[in-house]
């Protein structure tokens, strides 16, 4: 499905987000919407760490939807993971309409500039959003600045940069293989083929900050 397999099997995939994802899973969202869900790494993952959440996963490719449904069944969460095809502004707004606050996870290869528009989808002003930004040179430029500008008055904005993988990121015994040729093999297994200019944005609505401070 276009993403690297070994890091997912090793548990190091998008390691930059691990702590943030864990914290989001503990917030008990009623609904989590995963746009660009691929085979379900995040859709099924969030259903496991947030058992009170219902998951709606949008995936354009039929093979991805097939794998996603199979993964949800294998993990016993098919009753809480709904799978749909392409996400556009209309069905995105419909998915968010009934919820006061939801979590949106998005990886759509540049289409985030279309979907993450609070003027077109006003409910986004109350949503938590975790988005992989695709404004590095070979996709589209300056999407990140556009998104930050759109949410500047409603959200705190955290930028999470890609970090270069090191042997220390490897799990268990693999991190002890710091000698040739094993070190090269370990680093190759951890490699997600991302440019270091890539990053994620986490958008946290101001209302949730006020709610937390009042507790």
List keywords for this structure.
34% helix, Rossmann fold, 215 residues, alpha/beta, 7-stranded mixed sheet, 7 strands, disordered C terminus, single chain
Number of domains: 1
Number of helices: 9
| Distance, first to last CA | 42 Å
- Please report which band the strand proportion falls in: under 5%, 5-15%, 15-25%, 25-35%, 35-45% or over 45%: 15-25%
Q: Characterize the main sheet.
A: 7 strands, mixed
CATH superfamily: Vaccinia Virus protein VP39
CATH architecture annotation name: 3-Layer(aba) Sandwich
Helix content bin: 25-40%
Q: H/E order of the elements?
A: HHEHEHEHEHEHEHEH
Task: State Rg.
Answer: 18 Å
Specify the overall morphology. Answer: globular
What is the arithmetic mean of pLDDT? 87
Which CATH first-tier class would you pick? Alpha Beta
Strand segment tally:
7
CATH topology: Rossmann fold
The assigned structural class equals alpha/beta
Low-pLDDT segments, ≥5 res:
210-215
Please describe the topology of this protein.
Elements: H1 6-10, H2 18-25, E1 31-35, H3 41-49, E2 54-58, H4 62-74, E3 81-84, H5 89-96, E4 103-106, H6 112-115, E5 128-133, H7 143-151, E6 155-161, H8 182-190, E7 199-205, H9 206-214
Parallel strand pairs: 1-2, 1-4, 2-3, 4-5
Antiparallel strand pairs: 5-7, 6-7
Please describe what this structure looks like.
With 215 residues, the protein is of the alpha/beta class. It has a single domain (6-205), classed as 3-Layer(aba) Sandwich (Rossmann fold). 34% of the residues lie in helices and 18% in strands. The protein is built from nine helices and seven strands, in the order H-H-E-H-E-H-E-H-E-H-E-H-E-H-E-H. The protein has helices at 6-10, 18-25, 41-49, 62-74, 89-96, 112-115, 143-151, 182-190, 206-214, and strands at 31-35, 54-58, 81-84, 103-106, 128-133, 155-161, 199-205. It has a seven-stranded mixed sheet with strand order 3-2-1-4-5-7-6, sandwiched between helices. Residues 210-215 have low confidence and may be disordered.
């Amino acid at each position: 499905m276009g993403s690297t397999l070994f890091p997912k099997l090793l548990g190091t995939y998008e390691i930059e987000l691990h702590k943030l994802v864990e914290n989001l899973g503990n917030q008990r969202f009623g609904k989590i919407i995963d746009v660009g869900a691929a085979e379900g790494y995040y859709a099924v993952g969030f259903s496991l760490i947030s058992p009170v959440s219902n998951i709606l996963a949008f995936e354009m490719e039929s093979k991805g939807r097939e794998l996603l449904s199979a993964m949800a069944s294998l993990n016993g969460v098919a009753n809480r993971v709904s799978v749909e095809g392409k996400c556009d502004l209309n069905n995105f707004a419909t998915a968010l309409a009934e919820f006061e606050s939801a979590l949106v996870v998005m990886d759509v290869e540049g289409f985030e500039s279309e979907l993450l528009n609070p003027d077109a989808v006003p409910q986004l002003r109350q949503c938590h959003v975790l988005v992989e930004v695709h404004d590095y040179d070979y996709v589209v430029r300056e999407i990140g600045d556009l998104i930050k500008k759109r949410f500047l008055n409603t959200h705190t904005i955290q930028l999470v940069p890609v970090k270069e993988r090191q042997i220390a990121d490897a799990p268990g015994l693999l991190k002890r293989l710091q000698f040739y040729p094993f070190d090269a093999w370990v680093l190759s297994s951890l490699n997600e083929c991302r440019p270091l200019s890539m990053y994620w944005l986490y958008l946290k609505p101001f209302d949730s900050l006020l709610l937390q401070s009042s507790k």
